[in-house]
Amino acid sequence: MSTPAASTPPRIAVIGAGTMGHGIAYVAALAGCRVALHDSQRDALAEARRRIESLAAAGLQRGKITEADRAGVHQRLRYSVELDDAVMDVDLVIEAVVERINTKQMLFAAVERQAPREALLATNTSSLSVGQIAAAVREPTRLIGMHFFNPVHVMRLVEVVRHGRTPPDVVEHACTIARRLGKEPIVVQDSPGFASSRLGVVLGLEAMRMLEQGVASAEDIDKAMELGYNHPMGPLKLSDLVGLDVRLAIAEYLYQQLRMPHYAPPQILKDKVLRGELGKKTGKGFYTWGDA
Fold first, then answer.
1. Which of 63, 54, 62, 113 is nearest to 84 (CA)?
2. C-alpha 92: how far from its chain's center?
């Protein structure tokens, strides 16, 4: 696989304009990359544009970025409803669509037909098998996991996930790009939940069970981890930020794969998702959010 020179920012297509996709696109454009953000829904692209403009405005106000940085983001970032237009001339395609393996497999099969053959393909899945996703393409060696964290512009970690057919140069290439985007990569093997989700989901689900059992309030459970263990955010508030539907899907997948009782989703999580209380994106989860 050929790679752009180290001094040349990679051209990137981000597929999926939701919570993770728009964040990845913003960070990549801020890092000097030319970025195409694709979503088949025009409304999703319009909302992504609004959120990216809001991120840039907030960054400028807080002194995190300059006016030139904000102008550069607008100049380097474009929005596309056509997949072939988004991926036709890029060095890297990052998929950030719904956590369903069939959806990801079908998407990458289409991307492989339309993207340059030398382009790296990366899935942002937080728990699904990267090897199974790679099985949908003709050249599985070019597909790797690049798991970003929400909010992308704040969180420094990227999990680079290698499957059984990932060559070392592809791993190094993914790590180099992650660093180019201002992130710190760790390399993990393809296993259910990788490193971060296996650990984070256990903490989040146990916090939910504690709330369900009346051990303490959501605020005090979170404060226990924030003040007692120096976590920047408690597990219940973090779950709201990630999305309770996403948390439920990951927990169900990990429980199915690992059959360990601590991955079984508690009833309180199932009930909230059933009621449409999905966290910050709907305005209510374990907390009430005023800016959904």
1. 113
2. 15
Pair (133, 267) in one structural domain: no
* Residues recorded for the chain: 292
| Residue with token string 């599985």 | 140
Confirm whether pTM is higher than 0.70: yes
Q: What is the mean pLDDT of residues 166-190?
A: 97
Q: Where are the alpha helices (DSSP H) in the chain?
A: 19-30, 42-61, 67-76, 83-87, 101-114, 130-134, 168-180, 196-212, 218-228, 235-242, 244-258, 267-274
Which of 134, 156, 189 lies at the terminal end of a domain, its last residue?
Answer: 189
- pLDDT score for 8: 85
Burial annotation 219-229 (CB, 10 A radius, 16+ → b, else e)? eebbebbeeee
Burial of 62 (0-12, 13-18, 19+ CB in 10 A): exposed
pLDDT at 5 over 80: no
Question: Any idea what the CATH number is for the domain that residue 227 is in?
Answer: 1.10.1040.10
77 with 69: CB under 8 angstroms? Answer: no
Q: Between the CA of residue 202 and those of 129, 181, 235, 278, 279, what are the distances in Å?
A: 19, 29, 10, 19, 18
